[in-house]
Amino acid sequence: MQLNPVAAVIMALIAWAAISSLIHMSEGLLWLHWYMY
């Protein structure tokens, strides 16, 4: 299955955005848990 570079870049950007948002969400939840403790 041949993937053109534009689609590969778009998929990488979407994956990076999802991972970074998950990391920021978990960081915020950890900080909130520590703050409430």
TrEMBL record:
Source organism superkingdom: Bacteria
Keyword Transmembrane helix carried by entry: yes
Organism: Enterobacter hormaechei
Segments traversing the membrane: 6-32
Protein name: Uncharacterized protein
Keywords of the record: Membrane, Transmembrane, Transmembrane helix
